[in-house]
Amino acid sequence: MYIKYFRFLVAILFCAITSCSTVREKPRPATSTGKEAKREFRGAWIQTAFQGEYKDMTPARMKKDFIRKLNYLQACGINAIIFQVRPEADAFYKSDIEPWSRFFTGEQGVAPAGEFDPMAFLIQECHKRNMEFHAWLNPFRAGTSGTSTLAETHVYHEHPEWFVTYNKQLLFDPGIPACREYICRVVEDIVSRYDVDAIHMDDYFYPYPVNGIPFPDDNSFRTYGKGYTPDERDNWRRENVNTLIRELKHTIVKTKAWVRFGISPFGIYRNKKSTPDGSGSNTNGLQNYDNLYADITLWAKKKWIDYNIPQIYWEIGHPAADYITLAKWWDKNAHDIHLYIGQDVARTMKASDLTRKMELSRSLHHVKGNCFWPANEIVWNTDGIADSLQEHYHKTPALIPAYTHMHNGRPKKIASPRAERTEKGYTVKWFAREDRKDPRNPQYFVIYRFLPGQKIDLNNPANIAAITRYTECYIPNKKLKCRYVITAVDRFHNESKGKRIKGM
User: Fold this and answer.
1) Which architecture does CATH list for 3-393?
2) Looking at the chain, which terminus has fewer C-beta neighbours within 10 angstroms, N or C?
3) What predicted TM-score, i.e. pTM, was given to this entire model?
4) Each residue of 287-315: pLDDT tens digit?
5) HSE-up of residue 202 (Cα within 13 Å, Cβ side)
6) pLDDT tens digits, residue range 349-364?
7) Helices (DSSP H) in 84-164: which residue ranges?
């Protein structure tokens, strides 16, 4: 049903097939770690490519549907939405560079009624709920249904020489510098015009290989492969992707320095048998480095990306790609950027693996959270996933881990927080810097509640009473006389020192 599932199954052909349990996992607490972390990335991917649900929706219905999903995901503890805004060199947002997506309106290039802008709407609604919005782009895919369905404004018609066809897909040729420049232009446009928290790309770089069909880049290699022998074409391809990632990071930083850049690669970097020094994982499957020409660990070392979400979609105990083996390998090779684990909801729940996977992710030193594929599986409560998240694994709220490699410093404390008693509680008001264009200024606020005699502990998420982006918040009345402390958090998720709220 989903193209991503199809792509995953194709990749699995490189792996041994194993059966999985279909027993529904009962919600149960994580017992190995004993507590939830105050800071944890809890993301969910919302796919638009090859989805038919949007094209039949009016803007009013789509807004209602988005709000329903966001409310449900928020109730499940999700604090970051990764939304696919560019599936096929087209747009789920208003763009002067690329046409409206066919997955949005049913026909590429046709604008929605009232010029509704889904990305602008979702950013506003996510931030209203203090959820991050990550704009997810497919860099090289340009079409999957031939060129006849492409809008007149599609870049293919202006520059057909930029494109190749492989396995029935129309793709930008990664070896052509002008293609990379164009993709950077698209990203710069998004970052400059929209209040996104991050730019996100998944595992589509060079396409998944088809046995016996070479990638058709002979022309670009002859033109741009100077300094590489024919036997070194793989190195040239890797350098093409390296160059794109490096240039994208530079583009983002020069446009808005606080916007992050993240990648969710295929779950295997390299198999041990492919590495002369044995540094690869003890697995036997498709490889980022060798098959997709994506050198993820280099990007992490160079800080060209700010977070990494490897798609470890296999079950625990999979004979060719064991989840535990891969999670530990990525943890060992995190290279001081944020590492989150990509989870396949349906496979995880059918195998009754959720508890062990959540426990493992929270026990590994460099893993700072999880991201769930796809968001709809949570909304559908597949095999009790939503129940488990609400009742146990996301029972308390979580802040996004601080991106200290981008900026490491506290925002200024809140000024003059005071509470006014109402009939059913308190209205808390405070002052903070109004200029939020400076990412070091407060962007949202955290209010902590402490019972009489309870030690002030801002590290325990159970003490969080509210998280808000406004400078006013309503707190329901408690019978006990509690103490309240408020902090400010900047765009990098650095938190200020606490300030006691007077009047409560």
Assistant:
1) Alpha-Beta Barrel (3.20)
2) N
3) 0.93
4) 999 999 999 999 999 999 999 999 999 99
5) 29
6) 999 999 999 999 999 9
7) 102-105, 118-128, 155-158
